[in-house]
């Protein structure tokens, strides 16, 4: 089937099979390998992308279901060579350890900040509850997202 997607503000048209998952389209057809595949079952959040403003596990979405959608992947976070505030704070707070889960955390956090500029700590924790970090980086990740939200809300 023929699909058209808008990924990181660029339009892509492609022929995909009915079984092609969104993650495969992103990684293999578009070569955007920042999106990681962990569990392949919607449990780990490593593959999270933003689809029409919502964080979704791209391993659980078929490319055909995403036809016509606006997608943001981790590659779409930085603008004009400058890291997104979330990426900067992840680095500053030491929230990137293995790094494998980081793209998913960043995208869940970005989706949160797109709809809620001043999230509470519990809202931050709820937004990333679908993302797994196995190396005890969780607290630093929450702190990094909180710092990014505060800095952006204050316009610093
Ligand atoms: S790879 Fe998609 S949720 Fe784990
Ligand atoms: S930083 Fe990736 S699993 Fe914790």
Automatic annotation (TrEMBL):
Q: Which InterPro entries match?
A: 2Fe-2S-bd (IPR002888), 2Fe-2S-bd_dom_sf (IPR036884), 2Fe-2S_ferredoxin-like_sf (IPR036010), 2Fe-2S_ferredoxin-type (IPR001041), 2Fe2S_fd_BS (IPR006058), Beta-grasp_dom_sf (IPR012675), Diverse_Oxidoreductases (IPR051452)
UniProtKB keywords: 2Fe-2S, Iron, Iron-sulfur, Metal-binding, Oxidoreductase
Residue stretches making up the 2Fe-2S ferredoxin-type domain: 1-77
A Pfam family hit: Fer2_2
The organism's superkingdom is given as Bacteria
PANTHER family named in the record: OXIDOREDUCTASE WITH IRON-SULFUR SUBUNIT (PTHR44379), XANTHINE DEHYDROGENASE IRON-SULFUR-BINDING SUBUNIT XDHC-RELATED (PTHR44379:SF8)
Q: What is this protein called?
A: (2Fe-2S)-binding protein
């Amino acid at each position: 089937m023929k699909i058209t997607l808008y990924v990181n503000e660029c339009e892509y048209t492609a022929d995909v099979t009915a079984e092609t998952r969104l993650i495969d389209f992103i990684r293999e057809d578009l070569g955007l390998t920042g999106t990681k595949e962990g569990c392949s079952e919607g449990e780990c959040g490593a593959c999270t992308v933003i689809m029409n403003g919502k964080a979704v596990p791209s391993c659980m979405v078929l490319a055909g279901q995403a036809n016509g959608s606006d997608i943001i992947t981790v590659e779409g976070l930085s603008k004009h060579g400058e890291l997104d505030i979330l990426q900067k704070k992840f680095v500053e707070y030491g929230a990137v350890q293995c790094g494998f889960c980081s793209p998913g955390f960043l995208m869940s956090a970005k989706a949160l900040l797109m709809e809620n500029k001043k999230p509470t700590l519990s809202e931050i924790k709820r937004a990333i509850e679908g993302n797994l970090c196995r190396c005890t980086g969780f607290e630093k990740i929450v702190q990094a997202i909180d710092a990014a939200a505060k800095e952006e809300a204050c316009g610093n």
